[in-house]
Amino acid sequence: MLDRLKSALRTVLRTLRPDGDLMSQTVKSGIWAVGTNLGSRGLQVVMMIILARLLTPRDIGLMGIALVTYSALNRFSRLGIDRALVQRPEANVDEYLDSMWGLQMARGAVIAAVLVVASPLAASFFGEPVVEPILKAIALSALVAGLFNPSIVYFEKSLDLHKKFAFNMSGSVTEFVVAVSLAFVLGDVWAIVYGFIAADVAKLVASYALDSRRPGFDFRLDHARELFGYGKWITATSGISFLLVSGDDWVVGWLLTTAALGFYQMGYRLGKTPTMELSRSLSTVAFPVYSKLQGDADALADAVNKTVRVLSFASFPAAVGVVLTADPFVRGFLGEQWLPVIPVMQIVAVYGAFSSLTSAFNDIWNALGHPDYNTKINLLRLALTGALIYPATTRYGIVGTVGLIAGVFVLVIVPIKVHVAVRSVNGSHRRFLTELMYPVLASAVMGGALYALRPALSGIPAIAEFVCLVVAGVAVYIAAVAVVESRSTWEIRSDLETVLGAVRS
């Protein structure tokens, strides 16, 4: 029996090894990318559900404060050199790895030092003394991450995403085991802290186990300058993105309470998971593929259309599903103390669907050598959000915060991104909107069916209600897609068949 299982596993791994032509590599790598993100995010969601039962909203909020501070330093110091190496047309970038490693270690040391020095200030800013020792502890993670094998850049550049799967999952599994185990023993925020540190230690080991290349100390200033020329826009975009993605956490933690931040972050994580993880998976594959196609305008435009089609096919029904199942999910899995996260989950799900849809545009601009486009658009978004977030939060609490963020993005930024992206690949606005019409229609049918079904399920346990709604939603959406696809020019079936064919090849 064991031999059969080993043989079956070898067959699966051999079938899914990213090789063959570009289409086959892309599809197989995409499967690994989806597996990575769904596996990592799935473990994180399960971990958060368990921790929600064992810890308090304040514990979650304390770790949230620490992670926001850590993320701020991480984002604003992001060098962008890994993206620069992926974008370069040559397949072999070994000569840059030593310089990349040196910069990486220096960055990790600086982040760790700043965390230690700034920890009392952060604790004072949020009015939480416990934050100081937490920040000093997670400074170790910055040092560990600086030692990662720089050759992991090849996992993405060469579309060897089966290795990236192993790399990321080593950290996710370790964090899950350590955090959950210690939560039963310690019963406080330190269980999450130790799990966070253990994850980076596991990834450090995996980075050297998965690639035979070993970095040295041959740092070259000319290489660093060359990479910074591209990476500076990634650094700027990363810093702005932090303010957009995590700046709201700072505002909630400052204006409201640590428990409110715990509710906000829990709702945000759970709401974005179904809609945004697919886009992250495709982004991992799309950027290197777009980079390879940057000289072929027609092929690039076709690849972008396929990406939009697949993203909208998956993200729109996921958003509708979260909106209609958030209440039984929270009541059944998290418990009554977490009810304030429900509206946050619902708003984030809608925001996440549109964010997922437009995520491919960033990869287009990076691949075409215009990473500044995203930076400039995000500056506008940051200005609008920054001007309104204070009154929105003080008047409406966490719902006002997330509502403002979603509103600015969906109503202002999405139309701008769509227009610039379509122009970048010489595409058609009409075709783009047509591609969106079909999944929107199928998702609306699914949403109507679930809304009509909910009253009939109101008397059963919350977990059973959630499961019934999910099963019914999947069934109705599949049926709606089949009807819409048979009566229109929607090519989603062709895309899915292409994916299956590429996997088998």
TrEMBL record:
Segments passing through the bilayer: 109-127, 133-155, 176-197, 251-271, 308-326, 338-361, 373-390, 396-416, 436-453, 459-484
UniProt cross-references to InterPro entries, sorted A to Z: Poly_Biosynth_Transport
Localization terms from the record: Cell membrane
Pfam families: Polysacc_synt_3 (PF13440)
Membrane topology: Multi-pass membrane protein
Keywords: Cell membrane, Membrane, Transmembrane, Transmembrane helix
Main location as per UniProt: membrane
Keyword Cell membrane: yes
Family in the record: Belongs to the polysaccharide synthase family.
Record's protein name: Lipopolysaccharide biosynthesis protein
